[in-house]
Amino acid sequence: MRKAYLMVLAALLLTACGGDEFQDLRDFVKESGADMRGKVEPPPDIKPYEPFAYDNSTALPDPFKPRKQSARNANRSGQNQPDLDRPKEELEDYPLESLKMVGYLFQGKTGHAVIHSAEGKVYRVKAGNYIGLNFGQIISVEETEVKIKEMVQDSAGDWTERESSLQLVE
To answer: Rounded to an integer, what distance in angstroms lies between the CA atom of residue 75 and that of residue 36?
Structure first.
């Protein structure tokens, strides 16, 4: 008898789960996906790789061989070249970014800038002194600014001038 009661109870429980309580939700899910079909665009045509042979008949230089300087460039590289044999001054050991102009002095008829280094040392400089890592020479010293002409070498070996400055820090 117990088995019969358990079977009836199980049948009642299963029929309770099969009710129409969420039938509207099931119908919505079926209808919303009916019109949707997955459409994947075809992949683009892949062009076959065409290798390019570098030979002497083309005017293009081979990118894997080092380029030699032409005679024209060899003459130009020494044109603006700084004097590499002169003794270096103390402030040429510091990059310009680490130096700060902290004051201005006028002594006689010459203006001097007071420069503070990253190590905490203080230097007095005037026009003509050298400063920075790029062969920088001080062009002028003004009350609020030190103008510097640097010499930098580009990838072709040419030396070019570049102007920089140090502003007064208050």
So the answer is: 73
**What's the total number of domains in the chain?**
1
What is the CATH classification number for the domain harbouring 117?
A: 2.30.30.830
- What is residue 165's predicted lDDT score, i.e. its pLDDT? 93
| CA diameter of the chain | 125
User: Residue 34: inside a domain, yes or no?
Assistant: no
- Cα angle 98-102-106, degrees, rounded to a multiple of 5: 130
Domain assignment present for residue 95? The answer is yes
DSSP, residue by residue, 14-63? HHHHTSSTTHHHHHHHHHHTTS-----PPPPPPPPP------TTSSSPPT
Partners of 105 in beta bridges: 112
User: In angstroms, rounded to a whole number, what is the distance separating the alpha carbons of residues 160 and 88?
Assistant: 20
Question: In this structure, is residue 39 part of a structural domain?
Answer: no
pLDDT of residue 75: 42
pLDDT the model gives residue 129: 94
pLDDT 10s digits, 36-59: 777 788 899 999 998 877 676 667
Q: Is residue 54 part of a domain?
A: no
CB atoms within 10 A of CB 141: 22
Closest CA to 81 of 133, 158, 136: 158
